[in-house]
Amino acid sequence: MDFLDSLAVMVVGLAGGLAVGSGFVAFLTVLDVIPRLTVMSRAQKVVPLYEYALIFGALISTWVDFRGWSASLIPISAVPVGALAGCFVGLLAAALTEVINVLPILAKRMGLKSRIMYLLMAMVIGKVVGSLFQWILF
Amino acid sequence: MRRMVYLQMRKRVEARPGQVLRVVDVTRLMAEKDADVLDQLPVARFTRDQGNYMVIEWMEVVRVIREHDSTLDIRGIGQPYTIVEQKAKTRVPAGLYVAIVWILLFIGSGLAIMNFHTDVSMKEVHQRIYYLLTGVHHPRPLLLQIPYSLGIGLGMVLFFNRLFKKKFNDEPSPLELEVFLYQENIDQYVIDHEKDKDRRKVPDGFS
């Protein structure tokens, strides 16, 4: 019975992991984040490397998180991690905004096509300020 | 031998309400002779009751030219229609208008990111990451969170390739592409739907 229980738990865990993992990759693919970064870094030939980065990033951080392995680094080491994590969230947020076509429609409807850069900067600065506000003052 | 006339429909043109669209307005025409005369033939009148858009098809232009001179051999090049759009009243938006939309987007996106953070328990995640890195439990790991916040801005700017605009000059930014695609979709919709409407007659007395 014990063995069957463990087996059941393993099956459930594996199934859940499969669903989450494939969902994560599908999400990133739909949002075109990887292609954009690839073009930006002129790395069309090494796309598989980026795929491995995603897979290992997800895998290792899951493992470290669940095992509770603490690295005991100096506090300042949180700065680059935070910056890169924020960068990634920024990419996702921008991609989501783009997918739902907010800016083109707004610009067209309001006749602000020539000022679309200002609108974009409004969103960027709004996100940064909103986030800072939440952490520092909220 | 019949004289040749080549017609290429323009992609999009703008017109004022009530304006009579002549051949030269909607096409680029090349003729062996009398191109100026053909250019000035009226094709349609852009009236207010047609809404903001009108589609003029190649066939209409051909009919107009053939009524003028049925011996011409008319050939079409490129797409067979032109989209006529009503000229916007003002091209330059007022400063106040921009400011209002700016503030709307500014507050809206700030709110959206805060909602997102709450939604995914970002605070707990940050505390967890900070613990995993440093081994210290900290209720407000600002050392992680401030760079994170600035990183969001950097990431968005990166996505819309603003920083690298000089570097990738020939590649349009995703936003420019998106605006373009949106416009193309509208154009396609207009072409497909305006065609179904009753065709206009060439106004009399405008030749």
Automatic annotation (TrEMBL), chain B:
Segments spanning the bilayer are 94-114, 142-160
Q: Which UniProt keywords apply?
A: Membrane, Transmembrane, Transmembrane helix
- Which Gene3D superfamilies does the record associate with it? eubacterium ventriosum atcc domain
Any Pfam family matching the protein: SporV_AA
Please indicate which superkingdom the organism of origin belongs to.
Bacteria
Please indicate if the UniProt record lists Transmembrane as a keyword. Answer: yes
Q: Domain named Stage V sporulation protein AA: which ranges? A: 3-89
Query: What name does the UniProt record give this protein?
Result: Stage V sporulation protein AA
Q: What is the lineage of its organism?
A: Bacteria, Bacillati, Bacillota, Bacilli, Bacillales
